[in-house]
Amino acid sequence: MGEFELIRNYFAAAPCAQPGEGVALGIGDDCALLSVAPGEQLAISTDTLVAGVHFPGVCDPFLLGQRALGVSASDLAAMGASPLAFTLALTLPDVSADWLEAFARGLNEMAQGCSMRLIGGDTTRGPLSLTVTVFGSVPTGQALTRSGARPGDLLCVGGPLGDGAGALPLVLNQRSTEASTTQVLLARYWSPQPQLGLGRALRGKATAALDISDGLLADCGHIALASGVRLQVERERLPMSGALLSFFGLEQARQAALAGGDDYVLAFTLPPSELDSLVSAGWPVSVVGRVVEGQGVALIDDQGQDITPLTRGYQHFRETP
Ligand code: ADP
Ligand code: MG
Pathway membership of this protein (predicted)? Predict the structure, then answer.
């Protein structure tokens, strides 16, 4: 199968690659064309997943397709953007029709769940890697950046933390546990559900936001730095799933919630006056701390004692000490 046949059969023919709102021109020309409504800005983010680094080289291609788009779409959620479209740059060691068919099906399922259209990409030979670039739109000036947190704001998250890290020993076949726990944790890893609705609901309310990909403490550090404030995380308030607690136990579950990666849950800062309306509208909002004057991130226990650990999350290239 040649490159063009591959693109045509598995990607251009996918339901998510058909014409749709906001897409003036899709796959097949030198560029795709997006139409952005007046008064809207285009939000763009790109993520690369490399086999053996971000996912096991041997894995279910359907799940990989879901995950590749899910983690990228999560960046649109974190910005408060409405999803529009995405491109896929795919590097494959060889061409397997079964692999491509399952991968494209997984990608399509996530794309349709997120209302995003596949508008182009690139296909090359080499070690397995996937780069997804997502495009969304947001009313001018309303994007949720990392820089607006103010002392007095609450620090909130959009759901249970740590499940991504909890799933890792299962993904890597290092441990096993009962079927119901396995199912919950693996689903959270392989099919992350980008919090696109919550992101949009936070427009005009949250003062800063991001999606947690490297662990709560590490990612809160980005808000603290960009906003010039200190974030206090309260250990007793971390929301954790029953599946994670039963698999890991309380101590290790807390570790996963604080420093594990791959959660793709939103973390955001919110003036206290905005909390009730979000909660009564049914949005999942858990208060896990607050914003104070100062800098950096602190973890505090139920006595208010500082118990901040030294390592905070995953980094590909560590800072020199
Ligand atoms: P060019 O040589 O102009 O870069 P390509 O031959 O790489 O074009 O791709 C032809 C068309 O197919 C382009 O519209 C491109 O965006 C699209 N495309 C290539 N690979 C993929 C892919 N993996 N998924 C979706 N579209 C793709
Ligand atoms: Mg090309």
Answer: Cofactor biosynthesis; thiamine diphosphate biosynthesis; thiamine diphosphate from thiamine phosphate: step 1/1
